[in-house]
Amino acid sequence: xxxxxxxxxxxxxxxxxxxxxxxxxxxxxxxxxxxxxxxxxxxxxxxxxxxxxxxxxxxxxxxxxxxxxxxxxxxxxxxxxxxxxxxxxxxxxxxxxxxxxxxxxxxxxxxxxxxxxxxxxxxxxxxxxxxxxxxxxxxxxxxxxxxxxxxxxxxxxxxxxxxxxxxxxxxxxxxxxxxxxxxxxxxxxxxxxxxxxxxxxxxxxxxxxxxxxxxxxxxxxxxxxxxxxxxxxxxxxxxxxxxxxxxxxxxxxxxxxxxxxxxxxxxxxxxxxxxxxxxxxxxxxxxxxxxxxxxxxxxxxxxxxxxxxxxxxxxxxxxxxxxxxxxxxxxxxxxxxxxxxxxxxxxxxxxxxxxxxxxxxxxxxxxxxxxxxxxxxxxxxxxxxxxxxxxxxxxxxxxxxxxxxxxxxxxxxxxxxxxxxxxxxxxxxxxxxxxxxxxxxxxxxxxxxxxxxxxxx
Length: 457
Fold this sequence. Notes:
By secondary structure, this protein is α/β, with parallel strands linked by helices. Helices cover 21% and strands 28% of the residues. The strands form six sheets. An eight-stranded mixed beta sheet has the order 2-1-12-11-13-14-15-16, with helices on both faces. The protein has a seven-stranded mixed beta sheet with strand order 7-6-4-5-9-10-20. Strands 17-22-21-19-18 form a five-stranded antiparallel beta sheet, covered by helices on one side. Helix 8 crosses helix 9 (258-267). The longest helix has 14 residues, at 415-428. The radius of gyration is 23 Å and the shape is globular.
């Protein structure tokens, strides 16, 4: 495998990979990658932005990708606003990120009093008058409420898990597609894999359904497709899943249980299915390509490569050159004294394998007994009549909470199926983890980041 490419700005790394027939395809418009070398969409303001801290705020992913490619190596800091950033938080984000200006196609609300540089039509690019620099990349963490929290990455760290250079088959370069948004960590990883791996990319849009996106992916001939397990479960419910014939399937962002892995292997016989572990703070940890949930225990003792792992009080901790360097604005320490980031993801060793049991912050407390909802969902999802499920706690005056489940059926909704699901849970789980009630629903809410939306019932 080639060593990660760790030299130059994003544009120069794309140029080093080469390839003329490469594209970024959005829902409504597309851009050939070769155009980025001779064009600018910032006009005369491009050189003015050198050395500044810039908040990138765009309506769509394609605009965000173009700004990142154009300003990496020029800006001091690139702050990538997620699509759901509330206008009410813009002032605090600008303050915490020490941002000088907003760049994109989404103007700030009136009265904010901040400079805005809009993207314009492509113009011929002239030689820059500034010395290249290593730009900081700032990303928003997930799962936070209130004032947004951000971490600082470098392009070297973000690209640390990516093997660049020529594609596996130069005559058939990869075409990446992802249900992720590239303005979040998981989606940005896929964008960089396409840009630095000699490929093209099909970008998703929140304005299109899973069926429409799958149809567009099929029309573009996508070869590598990535999504969260929740995204995949929704996609597998659509007849348009038959439109795509990928050479590689990837999951990340949530626990990949055996049910979704097996469903993907059945839908795409012979296609490799891998799941990766990563977080915005810890970066990319590892990939698992053996078709099984969890990860081999010998991953924990590896002394080669960039990543070191350990488990403390059941929580997975990572240390590597791919982790973020700090939280923006100081405050909480991102890593411990030995450089390990506490991911908050709980794992349990069973035999020669570690299994993810859930988030430390998502525990349901039933009379003092702790339950990870993901562990119960993994059991429910094994039933052939279940497409996806959500387990949560419902308030109880006696035990504090009880366990309940919502299920999207894979076919018939019946009392018989409910009884079978409960029998399966009783056979595998202790009584306090077994749901007291199961309710069929048409769909389950998913966050903008593609994860199941978890709330107290």
